[in-house]
Every structure is written in C-alpha cells, then in structure tokens.
Design goal:
Order of helices and strands: HHHEEEEH
Number of helices: 4
Protein name: Xanthine/uracil/vitamin C permease (AzgA family)
Distance between the termini: 11 Å
Largest sheet: 4 strands, antiparallel
Shape: flat
Organism: Dyella japonica
Strand content: 25-35%
Keywords: Membrane, Transmembrane, Transmembrane helix
Number of strands: 4
Helix content: 40-55%
Radius of gyration: 16 Å
Length: 144
C-alpha cells in the first residue's frame, strides 16, 4: 500500500510540476512585465515539485523529504484583501471558509491541474482554507 501511495503522489507531482513549469515558461516569454517576477517564483516552485516527484518515484529517501515539503507548500489557501496565496500540482481537494457573516464553507476539487496564486491584493471577501489532498499526501509520506 505504501508503494502505491508513494507512486501516486510522485506521478501527481511530476505531472503537475511539468505542466506548471511549461505554463510558467510561457508566461515568462514577454520579459519585462511585473508578472515575470511572480512567474519566476512560481517556476521555482514547480521545478522543485517536479524534482521531488522524480526522486520519490526513484524511492529516494531525499525524495520522500522533498515531497513532504512539496505537499506542505500546497497546504494553505489564503485569499484576503491584503495577501493571497494558493498552490497545487496535479490535483486538489480544497475545503475553505469565507470570513464574513454568515460564515460559509465550501468544497472544490480537480484532478489533472496545476495552479499558483501569489498576490499582494485579493478578493473583497476573505477566504481561508486547506488542501485536504496535500494534507493526506503529507501524512502518507510520514508513514515511511
């Protein structure tokens, strides 16, 4: 069971990291915009996840450690008027709550996707959440 979970996590990391890396390279082509700074940061995130996934598929102990960090990077979902952050590679199952009255809970999921959001601004209604798939993957990597 452990090998199956590790391979599944590795495959999602490699696929999500590769597609994210390609999308960020496409965003970097018009050099000079302020969007290029965020794209470079995002590119490093995706390359790290891709390398972690490859190392995990090779059954490397360092790959388990890197994949744990890659899953922790995908864990928080923050969308406030001041700061926004969200990151996922391969798939996500997000549970979030809006921070206005009445508080509303939401669930969103997708397989075969990648996404990155890093912004100094955000939506008018703040939302905080967690990527359940990243949390479960991180816990599975702790099984060793």
């Amino acid at each position: 069971m452990r090998n199956f979970l590790f391979r599944l996590i590795g495959i999602l990391e490699v696929a999500g990291g590769f597609f994210g890396m390609v999308n960020m390279l496409r965003r970097l082509l018009p050099f000079g915009s302020h969007d290029s700074i965020v794209a470079v940061i995002c590119l490093f995130f995706y390359v790290f996840v891709l390398i972690a996934g490859v190392m995990l598929l090779e059954n490397s102990e360092r790959g388990v450690t890197f994949s744990g960090w890659a899953q922790l990077m995908q864990l928080p979902l923050i969308a406030t008027p001041i700061f926004s952050y969200g990151f996922h590679c391969g798939a996500f199952v997000n549970v979030y709550a809006s921070l206005h009255l009445p508080v509303q809970l939401g669930l969103d999921w997708h397989v075969g996707s990648e996404g990155f959001l890093l912004a100094v601004a955000g939506p008018g209604v703040a939302r905080l959440g967690i990527n359940l798939l990243a949390l479960l993957s991180w816990l599975a990597l702790r099984l060793r």
